[in-house]
């Protein structure tokens, strides 16, 4: 019997030990792409591995990826060779010395250069002139419209200039049938962030976070006006589903939602820009999935070369990624005729459209996004006084900035020492 | 005399001790240490002494102070609302299942137990649809117009309903086991003495299942303090952060999009742990003394 116990322990030890130590000829590739996105990435990785490269790629979909990244960075073991991170993480990752620059890879693969990618995606990986990431896509806030409703109310002309304005929406006050709405409140914080750009504002002043600004107030008040007029789906109701059930003119969700909307039978829809104040100034708040290498001394030069080859393959072959509803960052793909069939090609159809995609790269942007997500619904739907809310949000971000930033003088080495 | 040391107990207890040390003891100690530091999870923690606790408890200007107080208030509210229901309802069900004329006892027991096995996220999704204003059966059945998850007190009601629905099974099983262990003779002699069913419940059943009651009360209370998934999934903490519980703030501080504020989060977690410890100890003391 004791032998049995020994055996069990032995097996346990061997299995646990087996977990560590990755294969020398495999590129371990972490992504936060759960759900369908992950399946499309699997397809891409599989296609690459079929080309018999020296370094095969192993795609690991990692839920709660950023937490796990901190864990492996701290222990120095099991750090992935390549990963996908979001654009808004880049500044703080670089500040903390967590990213390896793409310098050598860009030198080896001459096609991995700014000309071959959408500018805004490429630039979101540049910090102080150093390239830290290679972009995969841009995923943007987008506004879907219900074709049938626009026709029914005779306002298809709203789409002529590709921008719906607040005034156009407000003109429908009192004209809608019961339980119909002009717009839902999906991704409201992103919509507000777009309005701040439309109003010429920003979320920082000289590097300090600026949430309580006249532009922020104006943006929230404008959205509140739409809600007060009874034109926005009510607080707490599932505006996304209400759009899909055909009761809402516009849905302000993301480029990736087109696949979900397409599955709804009888829903005739198209995509346009997020609503704005004036037809000639419009922005869509976007983010980007970026390939990045976490700092790791164990990554060999050969492996880095392998990573470069994989990224070049993705650059040429990421049309599959458009299936997931994302705006592919590689211009080869975006300019190919096949890409036009995808709804999100709207956002790269003209240079002006391309410029409407706005990625916030301010260092403390994540805290501001967090504050907006926590407060904006209450403010827009009139649950909370706007001035009071703005003051609390400003304080919220400032406190987090102060607490999240280590004082330089007493901060030890930024990176944990590698064993 | 043969001096043969017996290793068998070590093998039985060992795995548990190892797991306990690796996954509970060391992380707890490190968590307490982290609460005295400024730490972003990546760089080395910087010792700041009691600063985090001072900010959380005394600096009324600070966001962390208001978050802690609001989170603690909401957590306490949840505990006060949910724990009595999680004790009384399972107890009543367990007692009624003992009645002679109840048929299909095991079927009922299974039906009530199964919700506890369903992942709380999946359950919360189902319940959000049930409470959905347009599609949900609740509004259609009762003809109410409320948007449940964003209006008080309905937001709390949805959270409590999900919690009770998922939680009664576990306690019920424990009470049933306890009641089954009570000698039939006691009930029979009480009946001969002319005791009614209410008298029998208070004079025989309750005192006999004292320890299961203490156990479930302490565990349910401690569990309720750690509530997280139900408000996150059902109400996202709204309206106006009215259902944002302490665990949600702790998680946001440590593992949100921005640079982590793990030291402050640890301090809040330690304070929450202390509250749980004190209340559990008091409950245990009060109940074992009175019973």
TrEMBL record, chain A:
Domain of life, per lineage: Bacteria
Keyword Hydrolase: no
Keywords attached to this entry: Signal, Sugar transport, Transport
PANTHER family: ARABINOSE-BINDING PROTEIN-RELATED, OSMOPROTECTIVE COMPOUNDS-BINDING PROTEIN GGTB
UniProt name for this protein: Multiple sugar transport system substrate-binding protein
Signal peptide: 1-17
Gene3D superfamilies linked to this entry: Periplasmic binding protein-like II (3.40.190.10)
Record family assignment: Belongs to the bacterial solute-binding protein 1 family.
Entry keyword annotation includes Signal: yes
Protein source organism: Gracilibacillus halotolerans
PROSITE patterns per record: PROKAR_LIPOPROTEIN (PS51257)
UniProtKB/TrEMBL annotation, chain B:
Localization terms from the record: Cell membrane
SUPFAM superfamilies the UniProt entry points to: MetI-like (SSF161098)
UniProt KW keywords: Cell membrane, Membrane, Sugar transport, Transmembrane, Transmembrane helix, Transport
UniProt keyword annotation of Cell cycle present: no
Transmembrane segments: 7-33, 75-95, 107-130, 154-174, 209-229, 261-286
GO BP terms: transmembrane transport
A UniProt-annotated Pfam family: BPD_transp_1
Entry-linked InterPro entries: ABC_transporter_permease (IPR051393), MetI-like (IPR000515), MetI-like_sf (IPR035906)
A Gene Ontology cellular-component term: plasma membrane
Keyword field contains Transmembrane helix: yes
Main localization of the protein described in the UniProt heading: membrane
Membrane association type: Multi-pass membrane protein
PROSITE patterns: ABC_TM1
Family from the record: Belongs to the binding-protein-dependent transport system permease family.
Protein name per its UniProtKB record: Multiple sugar transport system permease protein
Lineage of origin: Bacteria, Bacillati, Bacillota, Bacilli, Bacillales
């Amino acid at each position: 019997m004791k032998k049995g116990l020994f055996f069990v322990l032995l097996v346990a030890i061997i299995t646990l030990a087996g977990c560590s130590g990755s294969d020398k000829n495999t590129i371990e590739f972490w992504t936060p792409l759960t759900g369908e996105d992950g399946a499309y990435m699997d397809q891409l990785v599989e296609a690459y591995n079929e080309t018999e490269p020296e370094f095969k790629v192993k795609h690991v979909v990692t839920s709660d990826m950023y937490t796990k990244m901190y864990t492996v960075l701290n222990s120095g073991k099991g750090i992935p060779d390549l990963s996908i991170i979001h654009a808004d993480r880049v500044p703080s990752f670089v500040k903390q010395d967590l990213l390896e620059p793409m310098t050598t890879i860009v030198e080896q693969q001459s096609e991995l250069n700014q000309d071959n990618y959408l500018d805004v995606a490429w630039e979101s990986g540049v910090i102080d002139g150093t390239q830290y990431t290679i972009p995969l896509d841009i995923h943007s806030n987008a506004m879907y419209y219900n074709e049938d409703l626009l026709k029914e109310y005779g306002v298809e002309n709203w789409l002529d200039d590709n921008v719906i304005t607040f005034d156009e929406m407000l003109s429908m006050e009192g004209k809608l049938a019961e339980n119909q709405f002009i717009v839902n409140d999906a991704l409201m914080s992103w919509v507000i962030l777009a309005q701040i750009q439309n109003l010429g504002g920003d979320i920082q002043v000289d590097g300090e976070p600026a949430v309580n600004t006249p532009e922020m107030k104006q943006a929230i008040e404008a959205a509140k006006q739409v809600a007060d007029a009874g034109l926005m789906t009510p607080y707490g109701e599932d505006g996304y589903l209400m759009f899909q059930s055909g009761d809402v003119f516009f849905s302000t969700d993301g480029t990736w939602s087109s696949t979900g909307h397409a599955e709804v039978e009888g829903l005739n829809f198209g995509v346009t820009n997020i609503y704005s104040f004036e037809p000639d100034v419009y922005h869509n708040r976007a983010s980007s999935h970026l390939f990045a290498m976490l700092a790791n001394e164990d990554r060999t030069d050969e492996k880095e070369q392998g990573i470069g080859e994989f990224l070049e393959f993705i650059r040429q072959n990421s049309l599959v990624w458009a299936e997931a509803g994302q705006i592919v960052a590689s211009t080869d793909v975006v300019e190919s005729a096949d890409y036009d069939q995808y709804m999100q090609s709207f956002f790269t159809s003209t240079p002006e459209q391309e410029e409407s995609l706005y990625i916030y790269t301010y260092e403390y942007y994540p805290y501001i996004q967090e504050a907006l997500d926590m407060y904006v619904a209450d403010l827009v739907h009139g649950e909370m006084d706007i001035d009071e809310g703005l003051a609390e949000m400003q304080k919220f971000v400032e406190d987090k900035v102060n607490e999240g930033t280590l004082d330089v003088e007493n901060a030890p080495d930024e990176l944990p020492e590698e064993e | 005399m043969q001096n043969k040391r017996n290793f068998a107990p070590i093998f039985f207890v060992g795995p548990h001790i190892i797991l306990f040390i690796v996954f509970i003891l060391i992380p707890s100690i490190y968590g307490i240490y982290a609460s005295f530091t400024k730490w972003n999870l990546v760089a080395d923690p910087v010792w700041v002494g009691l600063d985090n606790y001072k900010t959380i408890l005394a600096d009324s200007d600070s966001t962390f102070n208001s978050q802690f107080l609001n989170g603690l208030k909401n957590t306490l509210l949840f505990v006060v609302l949910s724990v009595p229901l999680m004790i009384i309802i399972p107890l009543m069900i367990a007692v009624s299942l003992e009645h002679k004329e109840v048929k299909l006892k095991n079927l009922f027991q299974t039906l009530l137990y199964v919700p506890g096995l369903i992942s709380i996220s999946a359950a919360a999704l189902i319940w959000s649809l049930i409470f959905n204003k347009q599609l949900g059966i609740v509004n259609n059945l009762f003809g109410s117009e409320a948007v449940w998850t964003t209006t008080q007190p309905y937001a709390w009601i949805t959270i409590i309903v999900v919690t009770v629905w998922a939680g009664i099974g576990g306690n019920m099983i424990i009470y049933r086991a306890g009641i089954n262990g009570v000698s039939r003779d006691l009930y029979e002699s009480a009946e001969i003495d002319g005791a009614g069913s209410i008298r029998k419940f208070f004079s025989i059943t309750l005192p006999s299942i004292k320890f299961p009651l203490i156990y479930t009360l302490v565990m349910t209370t401690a569990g309720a303090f750690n509530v997280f998934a139900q408000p996150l999934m059902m109400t996202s903490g709204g309206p106006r952060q009215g259902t944002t519980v302490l665990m949600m703030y702790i998680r946001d501080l440590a593992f949100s999009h921005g640079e982590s504020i793990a030291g402050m989060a640890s301090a809040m977690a330690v304070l929450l742990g202390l509250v749980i410890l004190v209340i559990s100890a008091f409950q245990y003391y009060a109940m074992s003394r009175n019973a």
